[in-house]
Design brief:
The chain is mostly beta strands. It is 0% helix and 64% strand. The chain has no helices and 13 strands. The strands form 2 sheets. Strands 3, 4, 5, 6, 7, 8, 9, 10, 11, 12 and 13 form an 11-stranded antiparallel sheet that branches.
C-alpha cells in the first residue's frame, strides 16, 4: 500500500504485483562505478524511489550524486508499466542529460531485463549520441537491488557503462 491524496491508502494495482519487489526507497551503500571508452572512469552514489499510486505502473526516480562533494550528477525519472496478464514490461524515462527513452523487456522472478526501443535526445545533447541502452534490475539473495546499464553510442558498441547496488532504506 502507498499513501494517496489527502493521506488516503492506495492499494497496489494487481497488474504490477510481479514488480512489487522493486517498491521502496533505495540508496547505494558503496559507490556505483561508471566507465566507458570515451570518458574517465567515475564513481557515484544514488538514491532511487520506486512508488505507486494505484495505477498499473510504478513511478521511479533516480538521483545520482558525487560521493565526495555530494553535488548532484545524474537525474532520471519515469514509469515502469507491465502489460497486464504478461511478464512484458516497458520503462519510460527522461534524463537530465536530455535523453528520453523507452525500454522494453521482461520481468522474471525478481529480475527485470530491458532494452531500448526508442532513444531520443534534445538537439544540443552532448556527443557522442546515445543510440542504445540495455538495463537489468535484480533483487539479490541479500535483498539488495542491483542495476547494470550497458550503452552504445555513435562511435562505440554496446558496452557496460554503469553498475550499482542499493540497499532498501527503512
Amino acid at each position: 500500500m502507498a499513501g494517496g491524496a489527502a493521506g488516503a491508502v492506495v492499494h497496489l494495482n494487481p497488474a504490477i504485483e510481479p514488480l512489487s519487489w522493486m517498491l521502496g526507497s533505495w540508496i547505494s551503500e558503496a559507490p556505483g562505478k561508471g566507465c566507458y571508452p570515451t570518458i574517465k572512469p567515475f564513481q557515484y552514489m544514488e538514491e532511487v524511489q520506486v512508488t505507486h499510486v494505484g495505477q498499473p505502473m510504478l513511478n521511479i526516480a533516480f538521483n545520482g550524486f558525487n560521493p565526495e562533494t555530494k553535488k548532484p550528477m545524474h537525474r532520471e525519472c519515469g514509469f515502469i508499466r507491465i502489460k497486464p496478464g504478461t511478464n512484458k514490461v516497458a520503462f519510460i524515462s527522461a534524463q537530465n542529460t536530455g535523453i528520453v527513452e523507452i525500454e522494453e523487456g521482461e520481468v522474471k522472478d525478481q529480475e527485470l531485463t530491458l532494452s531500448s526501443q526508442s532513444v531520443a535526445r534534445m538537439s544540443f545533447a552532448k556527443e557522442p549520441h546515445v543510440k542504445q541502452i540495455t538495463r537489468t534490475f535484480k533483487l539479490t539473495e541479500e535483498r539488495k537491488l542491483e542495476q547494470t546499464v550497458f550503452m552504445a553510442t555513435d562511435d562505440q558498441p554496446l558496452l557496460q557503462h554503469l553498475h550499482i547496488t542499493y540497499t532498501r532504506s527503512p
